[in-house]
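Chapter summary example.
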Amino acid sequence: MRGKGEKGDGAGPEDAQLLSLVVPTRNESATAPLLIARLADVLADVPADVIFVDDSDDDTPQIIEREGAESGLQVRVVHRDGVRRRGGLSTAVVEGIRAAGGRYVCIMDADLQHPPDLIIAMLRKAQDADADIVIASRNVRGGSDAGLNGLSRKAISWVAKWLVKALFPSRLRGVTDPLSGFFLVRRGLLADTVLRPIGFKILLDILIRTDSARVKEVPLRFAPRAAGVSKATLSQGKDFLAHTLILFWHRRFDGAFRRRRSG
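The structure predicted for these 263 residues follows.
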């Protein structure tokens, strides 16, 4: 797949790197080999690299390096320890975006709840519709949240979605899954946007801080975890509420916050 030039993103010739895939990991030694094998098939014809930002305490980074070297993919591991892990998933994704060189950056989880095959559909949608952001949505026709464990998690997800839709009605109009963890963004869109996510809802931060972004969606059938356990905690729920309130405060009272250049 070849990418057409995008305005303002620093895209080079037609054969320049099209995609950087950013995958935050923490103790995913069981799922990492499965994910890399799937990505090797999906990205076989795509000029891409895969950046794993790893906060693991087990042998996940060594497994990623070994499996990546055997896969034929261009794989990088950014392992973080100590204070570099501060902020968890949110700062891991931001660090991965900073390291990305592709025309588009795709964010996905490592547990295979986000099907790798969907990356190609997201790329095509971004190019065909000239979209800045493409969201893999559980809430459009053809999508499903069946991979969420239990009615309580589904109820929490539903309440959280409608909370942010109520707080940001104009920006999120037409966006069915603003809290998705699987999405693709044109890298140039983020060039002069300072991301300050708290917790794990990175997409919400991007949507609210980039007012003029063109957003499209593709259906996501959210799958059960391939292995391991969910990292969702009560603390993450508190982080989500704090992040949402901060974004609401700034959007209401500080219109300049969305487009500040990073120093």
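To summarize the output: The chain has one domain: 19-254.
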